[in-house]
Design goal:
Strand content: 5-15%
Helix content: 40-55%
Shape: globular
Number of strands: 13
Strand order of the largest sheet: 3-2-1-4-5-6-7
Number of domains: 2
Number of helices: 16
């Protein structure tokens, strides 16, 4: 560990972060924020895919592990293992399934082994069940059962991520910890003001991949029950395999003139910030980063009960909820928000307090405490 200046200052541990990339959505943004802020930005970041590294992490020490397709995983493990032999770290913290595998394999059997913190960024069992390939499903389950219990600490950003890892993959509960998402509000607010979004009526916004798991059809069926003389629009930000089917459903329901399919956008935040309602309809989620972003941008959230965290936030009054696939329940919540401005304001105030715990000023000290804790406890068996 590096000694901080000052006699009473705690030493700074030497940390290696392992992630898939710094360029992308929620998981990549969390990795990028950790590399920027954890222990004052002193951690080294090892990335599987080296995209926009100098642009997005200009002041960090970054290692390109050299991803070039699935066949490159053995070489990435070798590259990381060589680095770990050359430079000793107090702890390795990896984010997500594939980075977890690479970090575990690279540290396995090292004479001077750093503490290993593995994290899940989704619901691992539900994600595996969604896979249609029986071979791939068996592989994912095998690796998770083989690797996850051997971590010195296992972390997840959702209640269900922890529960599924304990129940299905043999992780010891006393080696688990729930971590927050990471949100840089100043960065988010700046991006939300970059452009003026389309708007001419109350807007219901959804940001999602257009696939079955996201259940965008639930929103369309709920909207079809809204009064036709009420001015409202739906903005769908995202693309995917279900796009054509969803456009056909909008035609069938007679609401295609009310829906804008915006496609994938690198910066959806101006639309989220000025929407009247943000909706999540997923069958399941770990912990949706887009929901926290909408709350931070002071847009009222309506979410399906797609996770224990979703039920928790609704129970605390930070969002309105409905059962997965219950378009009538979603319709009722949309109607309430469109007709009751005082309800929207109440949600905004409660949601802001809920989102605040995920902002970097609050979250980074918790991550640092997590690292310090694992450095002073026994290793996994």
């Amino acid at each position: 560990m590096k000694q901080c200046h000052g006699t009473n200052a705690a030493p700074i541990p030497s940390i290696l972060l392992v992630g898939s990339s710094v360029d992308g959505g929620g998981a990549e943004n969390r990795f990028r924020l950790l590399a920027t802020h954890l222990f004052g930005g002193s951690a080294t970041a090892a990335v599987l895919r080296a995209t926009r590294l100098k642009e997005l992490l200009p002041h960090s020490h970054v290692i390109d592990l050299g991803w070039a397709g699935m066949k490159s995983y053995p070489s990435m493990v070798i590259n990381l293992r060589k680095h770990l032999k050359y430079k000793r770290y107090d702890a390795v913290l990896s984010l997500g399934f594939y980075p977890n595998l690479v970090a575990f394999a690279a540290t396995f059997g090292l004479a001077s082994k750093p503490k290993l913190i593995l994290t899940e960024i989704t619901r691992p069992f539900m994600e595996t069940q969604e896979n249609r390939s029986l071979v791939r499903k068996a592989m994912l389950n095998f690796f998770r059962r083989s690797v996850y219990p051997k971590a010195d600490l296992f972390a997840a950003n959702s209640i269900d991520g922890i529960e599924e890892s304990v129940t299905h993959y043999g992780v010891e509960r006393d080696r688990t910890v729930r971590i927050t998402n990471l949100l840089d509000f100043d960065q988010l607010a700046a991006r939300a003001n970059l452009e003026a979004p389309w708007r001419e009526a109350p807007v219901i916004c959804m940001v999602a991949r257009l696939d079955r798991m996201k259940r965008v059809d639930t929103l369309f069926r709920a909207a079809a029950l809204l009064e036709r003389d009420r001015p409202w629009r739906i903005s769908i930000i995202g693309d995917g395999a279900e796009g054509s089917a969803l456009k056909a459903l909008a035609d069938e329901l007679g609401i295609s003139d009310r829906i804008i399919f915006e496609g994938w956008r690198e910066n959806p935040y101006p639309s989220i910030a000025t929407a009247d309602i943000f909706v999540l309809c997923s069958e399941y989620e770990g912990f949706s980063n887009s929901v926290i972003e909408a709350m931070a941008l002071k847009t009222p959230v309506v979410t399906s009960y797609c996770s224990s965290d979703a039920r928790e936030m609704c129970g605390q009054g930070a969002a309105l909820g409905f059962e997965v696939g219950d378009y009538q329940g979603l319709h009722e919540q949309l109607r309430r928000l469109l007709e009751e401005p005082e309800l929207s304001q109440q949600l905004i105030q409660t949601a802001w307090r809920y989102a605040h715990q995920h902002m970097v000023q609050e979250s980074i000290p918790r991550y640092e405490a997590l690292v310090r804790t694992v450095l002073f406890r026994g290793s996994a068996r």
